[in-house]
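Ligand-bound model needed. pyridoxal-5'-phosphate.
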Amino acid sequence: MANTSRIYLDWNATAPLLPCVRDALLHAFDLSGNPSSVHKEGRAARMAVESARRNVANLVGAQASHVVFTSGATEAANLVLTPDYKMGRSALRIGKLYVSAIEHPAVREGGRFSKDNVTEVPVTSDGVLDLDALKKLLEDHDKTTGLPMVAVMLVNNETGIVQPVAEAARLVHAAGGLMVVDAVQAAGRLPIDIQALDADFLFVSSHKIGGPKGVGALVTRGEAMMPKALIHGGGQEKGHRSGTENTTAIIGFGAAAAFVLDGLVERNAAIATLRERLETGMRKAAVDVIIHGAEVERVANTTFFTLPSLKAETGQIAFDIEGIALSAGSACSSGKVGESHVLTAMGKDPKLGGLRISLGVSTSEAEIDQALAAFEKIASRRKPAGQAA
Ligand code: PLP
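Prediction:
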């Protein structure tokens, strides 16, 4: 039986399925055809996939024909981060990949580049991409090895800090390079326009916006320049991603994309008010709380904080016992909490770690007040500095 007393404040890890997506999924289960089949059943499935493609394209200001469905953002990252490109019929070589030091592991691992050809670009102590450092790296790039490719996230998953992607893209294009944007945590939280970002490629993930898990998309600015396929076979998705489309999940993704785009600004303004209530209450309850990135632009839903003398892992368990699901930095697949590479990149001591509260479309004022009550309780029973639990 569902435990109704739980409060879910970990929307950056994954968003609960939206009710309208559940309805769309139930309908999609009855579409029995293969979208590649020419008969009526196949055509019905194809129509539904193409409608979802339009919704995902609208979410990021792109053309529907420029959306390639994948099994998620990690696969999209591995598809796009490769030294091997095609420009029409000619091969195009990318010499080096530059990634910001705060990227998600899906990008930080460098996709299909060899480790030697992946260079990190630092961030400032505010957690914002260091544009001067990027400029210098691009000036020093050896073009005889191939073009530079730069990957920067639009919004960081731990801090919620918005990155200067359009400014970075200008530098990248001036250097003749390609710009890749991880828009996973920005989708549904900021208006996104692939043209305005000046991105060549971006990718999004369904489960972060209330759609089903295991589906995402690589979105391209045009079609002239495409990465070498990662998955070969029947030539689906115009040969960029073979395998029968996960019709059900794609339909759910499309429904989620349409939902979050409609009323995006108003919904996020309401979430910002809740986050303000939360952070004001936290500062009142613990004057020493450090809210990372509070001085720079963040999306409305994320609070990443450190409570001195409280290890993030201990804090996470304490909140869980109080009925509140939040996260200690970003959870890795083992469920273990590693040191936050984001705090390290910002030059902060990663030992205590950080706790992340992330809000979503159904978060209520009452839930925030309950989370604050738990925060007060947990903050007040901390041991004095130097005796961290
Ligand atoms: N990029 C960011 C910023 C993320 O937060 C995540 C998920 O945690 C991913 C990429 C990977 O997305 P997916 O779970 O769809 O592979």
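The longest strand covers residues 90-100.
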